[in-house]
Design a protein that fits this description.
With about 160 residues, this protein is mostly helical. The chain has one domain. It contains 6 helices and no strands. The chain has helices at about 10-45, 70-75, 80-90, 95-100, 100-120, 130-164.
């Protein structure tokens, strides 16, 4: 029979430290991903050969294919223009970014706030009542909701314009 010398309070403290370290590791990973997204957006060229802002297609510079939905149906998907928008923001052109895809501007803002939050957690700030996983889920749901709202509004606008 083994007798543990740790008191319940010490065991609880050890569990809290372990959970805190796990959150910090997750936060470091998510912060690095957020920084990578914004660095890549800065490296991409969101302008066409004549220097005008693109409306979409900047993701091709990453070797990604054209939008499948747009290729098959002619209808842009909910995320069409997001890469271009974030790149335009990183190049200091918020007006062109907003005109390209206003939802992308909101998604970028969510991404910036999230990245800052993750950096703060990674440096040792306690995350309070939210875990890193909860924050990632909330950011994902918010970004998807904004993109979907914009997409549905564009579809409705297209249907209305086609009927008049």
């Amino acid at each position: 029979m083994s007798i543990s010398s740790a008191t319940p309070d010490q065991s609880s403290d050890t569990a809290k430290i372990s959970a805190f370290n796990h959150e910090r590791k997750l936060a470091i990973g998510f912060a690095m991903m957020g920084i990578a997204v914004f660095v890549i957006a800065t490296v991409l060229n969101p302008y066409d050969a004549s220097g005008r802002p693109r409306s979409h297609g900047t993701h091709h510079q990453l070797g990604l294919p054209p939008c499948t939905l747009k290729t098959l149906t002619g209808i842009s998907c909910p995320s069409c223009g997001m890469t271009t928008t974030i790149s335009l923001l990183m190049h200091g052109n918020p007006q062109a970014a907003w005109q390209t895809n206003w939802a992308g501007c909101i998604v970028a803002f969510i991404g910036i706030l999230g990245t800052i939050w993750f950096l703060l957690i990674a440096t040792g700030l306690t995350s309070g009542r939210f875990t890193a996983n909860q924050v990632v889920k909330a950011m994902t749901i918010a970004g998807m909701a904004v993109a979907l709202i914009r997409w549905l509004a564009n579809l409705a606008y297209g249907v209305l314009m086609a009927t008049f």
